[in-house]
Write the structure tokens for this entry.
Amino acid sequence: MKTLAEAVVFLLEMLTTHEESGIDWQACLNISNSTWFELANASCVERQALTEAAAERLKVLFREPDEYGYTPRGAVTPRQRELLQSLADGSVWYEFDNPEAETEYPMEMSTEQMVSATDPPPVEDKRRRLGREFYDQLGPEDLSRPCKRDDCDRGAIAKSVLCKRHHFEMIQRRGCPFDH
């Protein structure tokens, strides 16, 4: 459990600090959002493991300088620190555990404006929309390079040996609802 929790904390940290060159910010956002929806259902033991892994990561990042004067604390971004701190102190779970709790309304909307606002789309629709965005970003299939999955007559996409459908299923770890 500890190793898995450390891996999840590392993944969230990397996705949160996606400014690094070579990492697509939209893909990071999609993966991060999907991960948080899954983590919302984490058990108490799983949450505790994540809390301990984040606390340990904070200790590593904010350790005292070594004999050469090096410490990684100067490279830690405010966003990275906020993420790790909220995992370490457990505050990250408040919104999931207390959906009815008062929150600040977006764009300084009043309570009256929020009450009369239309409901947000269901979670299922959001997952489908994010899936479609990811699917559409995969680009066109090249029929001169066939998909490597057995019984598939579609072409592979750029930088992959799979067609869009099978690449989607491999990355998203679920069936692909799209066929365009």
In short: The chain has two domains: 2-103, 123-172. The mean pLDDT is 80.
